[in-house]
From TrEMBL:
Entry keywords, A to Z: Coiled coil, Cytoplasm, Golgi apparatus, Membrane
Bilayer topology term: Peripheral membrane protein
Protein name (record): Short coiled-coil protein
Coiled coil (UniProt feature): 39-92
Family: Belongs to the SCOC family.
Compartments where found: Cytoplasm, Cytosol; Golgi apparatus membrane; Golgi apparatus, trans-Golgi network
GO cellular component, one term: Golgi membrane
Amino acid sequence: MELPLDEEDGTFTSISLADDSEYRSRKRSSKVERAPATMMNADMDAVEAENQVELEEKTRLINQVLELQHTLEDLSARVDAVKEENLKLKSENQVLGQYIENLMSASSVFQTTDTKSKRNSTADLLVDVS
């Protein structure tokens, strides 16, 4: 800052204190103005960090939901496959059961016999032998 030169005697004149206080006042006000800006930047950084954490959490939850949906789809497909296999096996069991019944009815070993007639023939045999 240049001091004004007094042209009459060639000496420097003093500057009033009012000018100096005005300069200091402007300097302080610029610091005060910068302080809220710095605080606002810090607040904005905190908000941005919080938003980033929320965004990461949302992304994690979305990925987890998608994974669970795929797992559910896989399980549902597996249940459908097991149901189809169950129906197929039931049908095969019915066919085999019918086949076994037909074999048993065709075989003389498995045919039902009348117990009274069997006793009479056994008694006849015993009588004849004596």
